[in-house]
Predict the 3D structure of the following.
Amino acid sequence: MVKKKKSALPTTGDVAQWLEDKYHLIETFYNIYEDDFGDSILLSYDQAVEDLLLGKPNFSFDAGKMYASALSKMENMFKQSLSQQKFDGLIAGVPTQASLDGVNHRLKIKKGAPRPSFIDTGLYEATFKAWAGTK
């Protein structure tokens, strides 16, 4: 068996966990939009039941498929919340000093105009996924 080398660089998942531990972004996001999530999930569920009753051929009890529209909406809401700076002032330390200083690792000089917090390279925002699972 070949052992996989452990990278010295953090993964996107590692960074996401650090951000959650320090800033509680996902927790805050959930608290802000909890009612919207419930409404979206209910609409997705209603559509799934309707598809089942109508005998739609692509119906599935798979949670990821059943709630796809709600999950997509949640993903878009999170990404918009980051870009629209909705966490500024709601979370201690946000806006971050790096965002105020314009730290931007996409630029050659690594510094530019102030930017929204948590959107330095764009990777965190781009890879955010909402999912539903079953026990």
Observations:
- Residues 24-127 form one domain.
- The CA atoms of residues 39 and 77 lie 14 Å apart.
- The chain has one domain: 24-127.
- The two ends are 32 Å apart (CA to CA).
